[in-house]
């Protein structure tokens, strides 16, 4: 596809998702409460969107990823939550 | 367009889904053993589940002209109980000669714990012992990168495992390259919120090529779409991919990999 074709196919969808992200940020900031590691991770990941790196999706995923290498002692939960605490 | 659904948990789907899949061109569905949403309390639960995968589901699929195949294992979410896992692993060989069994899967990691790793290693040994294909589940979200690396270390260090007989599923942009670099297959899962989207999966195909990659829905008891693969095929068409290129990804690639099992016959 040409750049024009990519934009023709995906611009409106991406625009919608960007507004959703902006509204999510507004919603979190409007709500009271303690700091949350997930929001911290989200704000860090979002900076990747303005970078000049080629693989922004990969960069965002890496910002949310556990970069440690050793297995944990015991699984105490079943679910993942989307970001790494601590 | 004909397609193969290489990863769908049909035990958790209604029969209408088989009809919709058949209408959309599905010729075969492959169902890995997975977590039911709760921990099974005893090995008898797994026995019944394996019976369901090898006896009941193929009949349900056949009503719509869809061939059903399955994989067997204890999944990573139930792997903290190593004693139970060992019992289940001892049970699996009894089912390996059933005509729709493709291999051991979906094994893998969930939270990347020591016990999960131990159970993964035992099941890789089982697959090697019985010369079975392997289908791997990689962890969700923040655990995926670490888990994929741990899994690849287990597999590449096993002298009897051939990489071309392993599919690492649920890859995303940050894990696909390391899987393909090891000579293994990579599955892109089209699942809401926690995994890939059609657009991103096609981006990955356009960047890495269409060898050793497949698409799947991994539809299950969560909010998921059993038609995610044909919908992605349509998305490929919208982007200008030709019919032959689309069929390669949604039909030929799964067929190539799965035909390494003597039981995979269309």
How helix-rich are the residues of chain A, as a percent range?
40-55%
SS elements, strand count of chain B: 8
CATH superfamily of chain B: Metal-dependent hydrolases
SS summary, helix count of chain B: 9
State the end-to-end distance of chain A.
Answer: 42 Å
The gyration radius over C-alpha positions of chain B equals 17 Å
Give the end-to-end Cα distance of chain B, rounded to a whole number of Å: 16 Å
Offer a concise description of the structure:
The complex is a heterodimer of chains A (86) and B (266). By secondary structure, chain A is an all-alpha fold. Helix content of chain A is 53%, strand content 0%.
Protein architecture, described:
The complex is a heterodimer of chains A (86) and B (266). By secondary structure, chain A is an all-alpha fold. Chain A is built from three helices and no strands. Helices cover 53% and strands 0% of the residues of chain A. Chain B has 266 residues and is an alpha/beta fold. Chain B has helices spanning 15-23, 43-62, 82-91, 114-129, 144-156, 176-181, 198-208, 228-238, 243-258, and strands at residues 3-5, 26-31, 67-72, 101-108, 133-137, 166-169, 185-189, 213-216. An eight-stranded parallel β-sheet of chain B has the order 1-2-3-4-5-6-7-8. The mean pLDDT of chain B is 97. At the A-B interface, helix 1 and helix 3 of A face helix 4, helix 5 and helix 7 of B.
């Amino acid at each position: 596809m040409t750049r024009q074709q990519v934009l023709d196919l995906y611009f409106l969808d991406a625009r919608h998702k960007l507004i959703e992200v902006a509204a999510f940020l507004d919603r979190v900031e409007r709500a009271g409460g303690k700091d949350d590691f997930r929001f911290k991770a989200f704000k860090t990941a979002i900076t990747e969107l303005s970078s000049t790196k080629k693989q922004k999706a990969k960069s965002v995923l890496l910002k949310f990823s556990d970069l440690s290498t050793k297995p944990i002692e015991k699984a105490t939960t079943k679910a993942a939550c989307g970001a790494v605490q601590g | 367009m004909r397609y193969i659904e290489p990863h769908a948990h049909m035990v958790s789907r209604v029969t209408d889904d088989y009809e919709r899949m058949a209408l959309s061109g599905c010729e075969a569905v492959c169902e890995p053993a997975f977590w039911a949403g709760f921990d099974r309390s005893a090995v008898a639960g797994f026995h019944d589940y394996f019976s369901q995968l090898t006896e009941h589901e193929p009949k349900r699929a056949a009503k719509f002209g869809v061939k059903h195949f399955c994989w067997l294992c204890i999944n990573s979410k139930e792997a903290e109980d190593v004693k139970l896992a060992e019992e289940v692993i001892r049970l699996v060989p009894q089912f390996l000669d059933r005509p729709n069994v493709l291999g051991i899967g979906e094994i893998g990691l969930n939270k990347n714990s020591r016990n999960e790793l131990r159970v993964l290693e035992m099941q890789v040994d089982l697959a090697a012992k019985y010369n079975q294909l392997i289908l791997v589940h990689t962890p969700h979200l923040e655990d995926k990168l670490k888990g994929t690396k741990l899994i690849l270390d287990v597999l590449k260090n096993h002298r009897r495992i051939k990489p071309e007989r392993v599919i690492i599923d649920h890859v995303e942009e940050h894990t696909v390259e390391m899987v393909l670099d090891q000579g293994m297959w990579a599955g892109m899962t089209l699942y809401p919120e926690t995994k890939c989207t059609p657009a991103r999966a096609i981006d990955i195909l356009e960047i890495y090529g269409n060898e050793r990659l497949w698409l799947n829905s991994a539809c299950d008891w969560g909010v998921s779409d059993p038609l995610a693969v044909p919908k992605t095929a349509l998305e490929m068409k919208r982007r200008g991919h030709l019919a032959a290129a689309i069929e390669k990804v949604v039909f030929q690639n799964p067929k190539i990999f799965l035909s390494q099992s003597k039981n995979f016959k269309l």
